[in-house]
Amino acid sequence: MPDDDPELDVFPRDRPALASVWLIPLKMLDDDARAIQLGAVAEMALAADQTDFVGDPLRMMLISLEEESRSPYVIEANGEGVGVLTLQWGAARLAGWPDDDSAWLLRGFLIDSKSQGRGLGVLAAKAAVEEARKLTARQGGGQAGVVLSVNERNPAGLAAYAKAGFVDCGRYLGGNSGPQRIMYKGF
């Protein structure tokens, strides 16, 4: 197969795919380490077409640090902060799930605009499910998986979550940006 075949280019050549991402738990860091991570988060930006779907990353992390039910993470790849996400217990109905306690809510998930297009969202979504499984085991919760809602006008998000193994469980009409798809992945 020729190397210049565009069908083979899953990722742009100047932005190679990465083998792994790390989720850095902000609540488990000391003050200095947390400040360094939050500094990296402050430099993150959304692509212009994403502002309807997710909020300011620094604001999301600061809010998550204050709420006991939320576990905020910086997504790291190659030693660099490339995104953020939060896992929240007791709030799955916010994504249209039938109850609050059987699933973790994945929220405030974004990959920095400079780091998009390398498969990092898929890797981070998979890592979030594994982290939720570990949190459930440590805390003795009854969660069986992770749920999220993604805007129907966000085809990149829908595709990334599906590629990460999340299953579409129907439509949710909540949220400020229009209809959402409820997506779930069990442990």
What does this protein structure show overall?
Strand 4, helix 3 and strand 5 form a beta-alpha-beta unit. The longest helix has 20 residues, at 120-139. Strands 1-2-3-4-5-7-6 form a seven-stranded mixed beta sheet, with helices on both faces. The protein is α+β, with helices and mostly antiparallel strands. The chain has four helices and seven strands. The termini are far apart. The chain has helices at residues 31-42, 57-66, 120-139, 155-163, and strands at 22-25, 70-77, 80-88, 104-111, 145-151, 167-172, 180-186. It is globular, with a radius of gyration of 16 Å. It is 27% helix and 26% strand.
Entry summary:
With 187 residues, the protein is α+β, with helices and mostly antiparallel strands.
Index terms:
seven-stranded mixed β-sheet, globular, alpha+beta, 4 helices, 187 residues, 7 strands, disordered N terminus
